[in-house]
Amino acid sequence: MQEFILIEPGSTAPKLEKVEWTREAERSTLRSEFEERLADSSSLAFRVARGVLRNDADAEDIAQEALVKAFRNFEDLRDRHRFRAWLVRVSFRLALDRLRSSKRRGIREAEWIREQERTRTAESETSAEFQQHLERAMAELPEKLRLVLLLSAMDGHTLEEVAMLLAIPVGTVKSRLFFARKKLAEKLRCFVQPTTNR
Amino acid sequence: MFCSTYNKSLTHAVASGELSPAQREHLAACEPCRNAFAQEQSLFATIDSGLSIAANSEIPDTLIPRIRVALNGDPVPQRRSFSFLVWGFASAVVTAGVVVGLIHSSSKQALVEPSRRAPVTVAQNSAERTSLNSARTGGVSPLQHVKSVALAASNNSTREFPEVIVPPDEGAALLRYEEFLRKNQGGVVLVASVKSLDLRPGIEPLRIAEIELVDLKIPVLSKWDSEDDTK
């Protein structure tokens, strides 16, 4: 958002030093640049946090915290790719930190189960149960595999983009993705009803 | 279940989503493998759809407004200016100065204190004896005296030599004390410190000969009593 100062015709401009003017202009430019990225980057931060925490309220907190941090460091993060990569890392770290707080975890689990039970209908019961197992299995994956899995499952993320976000080669993304999916399959095989022979 | 020869490679193919021509051929020919492959594919499809749900959760409407509020409350980022560096450097210098001053003053105090405590020189001649007696009447108790000797002797680092002012009647007491210290190993410190003294020419250090313990001879009291009675 740009800041303007209205000056009446004939009157003199407010007595601001040249340095202050420059600083003000810089601040407003920074803010407007940040605002441009807010919608896109807030959803990225939220989804990364949600993938770890499995709870909307906590994920919202983490996204906010990550973006406030990002704004503080925005001077060094003006490059778009760098910014997104930084945000992913910070959101993931913050979310993991929160998850590790055992007290909160216990409360969250209880809340989550209650929420699931409330929203569950007869039709969606099976899929909801599977989703529950899937998210638990994801939570048990090693951090590196989990993050790759999450980012590549997000809409619009190609393997190359994931590689760029995590600053790792595409080959590494592929192999991590492969191992993550394989591990999930091993854990979830027993929860999926076998299809009939075709 | 896949055929044993294709088990590993087909499992790998399902997870990676890439089939080689040889695998395709085998699948076309082998029905059990085809069925197993279909089952595995269905499992991975279920997992992928579940992952997509988990990873693309709906963004709450409140998210962006609350971030904006948080950003408005947060101070606007600024470049670290020159003045910040100057102030940082200045405060570091001042802190360092204060710390050095404190260390210096405390070490100086530590050097001065032992010299205040300690009298030196073993008095043997008569001229000194008189002054000694007056000092003694000034109220230095034997206990304090002993304490000062012990303290000064144990404090070698200050290079202040113990000054022991002893009137002749306390000489015997000092000898006994020396003996006591020897027995209790404290004497090692005292003797060692005396040996290391650089005394000014003309001053002889007090030499303590081997001590002989003899029974105290006390006159029989009954004699005195009988004399008093007669008076």
Tell me what portion of residues of chain B adopts beta-strand conformation: under 5%
SS-based structural class of chain A? mainly alpha
- The level of helicity of chain B is 55-70%
Q: Average pLDDT value of chain B?
A: 68
Instruction: Give the amount of beta strand of chain A, in percent.
Output: under 5%
Q: If you compute it from the alpha carbons, what radius of gyration of chain B comes out, rounded to the nearest whole angstrom?
A: 48 Å
Helix count of chain B? 10
Task: Describe this entry's structure for a reader.
The complex is a heterodimer of chains A (198) and B (231). Chain A is mainly alpha-helical and 198 residues long. Chain A is 73% helix and 0% strand. The model of chain A has no long low-confidence stretch (mean pLDDT 80). Chain B is mostly helical and 231 residues long. Among the domains of chain B are: 49 residues, no CATH class; 84 residues, no CATH class. Helix content of chain B is 66%, strand content 0%. Chain B is elongated and about 130 Å long. Classes of the chains: A mainly alpha (198), B mainly alpha (231). Chains A and B meet through helix 1, helix 2, helix 5, helix 6 and helix 8 of A and helix 1, helix 3 and helix 4 of B.
Question: What are the SSEs and their pairings?
Answer:
The complex is a heterodimer of chains A (198) and B (231).
Chain A: H1 18-53, H2 56-72, H3 80-100, H4 102-119, H5 125-139, H6 143-153, H7 159-166, H8 170-188
Chain B: H1 7-16, H2 21-29, H3 31-55, H4 63-73, H5 82-117, H6 126-137, H7 142-154, H8 168-183, H9 186-195, H10 221-230
Helix pairs in contact in B: 1-3, 2-3, 8-9
Write out key terms for the chains shown.
heterodimer; A: 198 residues; mainly alpha; Rna Polymerase Sigma Factor, Chain: A; Arc Repressor Mutant, subunit A; 2 domains; B: 231 residues; 10 helices; 0% strand
